TrEMBL record:
One of its GO terms (biological process) is positive regulation of circadian rhythm. Keywords: Biological rhythms, Nucleus. GO terms for cellular component: nucleus. Belongs to the EARLY FLOWERING 4 family. The keyword Transmembrane helix does not apply. Residues 14-95 form the Protein EARLY FLOWERING domain. InterPro entries: EARLY_FLOWERING_4, EARLY_FLOWERING_4_dom. This is Protein elf4-like 4. Residues 88-114 are annotated as: Disordered. It comes from Quercus suber. It is found in: Nucleus.
Length: 114
């Protein structure tokens, strides 16, 4: 019985580690894109203030790039949300066999039937 409890804790720790890595990777990518967006917005503003026709025409492409970057950020957050949801599901399954109380002692969870 104790082996089941400890194995579920081990798998939960692995899932948590993977979730943490996913968070770090995703947030790193998001931060990089947001940094790019800051530069794009600055350039767009400068071009707009200059009122030079070529610069204003260039803004069309820059705004498209900005919109694509925003889509990428949304996709990254959607992927992150999906990963967290999967992790919570896996963690819940691992916890269904047993868990530790806050005092560190093992306890068995009862599963109610229909």
């Amino acid at each position: 019985m104790d082996g089941d409890i400890f194995s579920s804790i081990g798998s939960t720790a692995q899932v948590d580690g993977k979730v943490l890595q996913t968070f770090q990777k995703s947030f790193g990518q998001v931060q990089h894109i947001l940094d790019q967006n800051r530069l794009l917005i600055n350039e767009i503003n400068q071009n707009h203030e200059s009122k030079i026709p070529d610069n204003l025409s260039r803004n069309v492409g820059l705004i498209r790039e900005l919109n694509n970057n925003i889509r990428r950020v949304v996709d990254l957050y959607a992927d992150l949300s999906s990963s967290v949801t999967k992790s919570v599901d896996v963690s819940s399954e691992a916890d269904s066999g047993g868990s530790f109380k806050s005092n560190g002692k093992a306890s068995q969870k009862r599963i109610r039937s229909g």
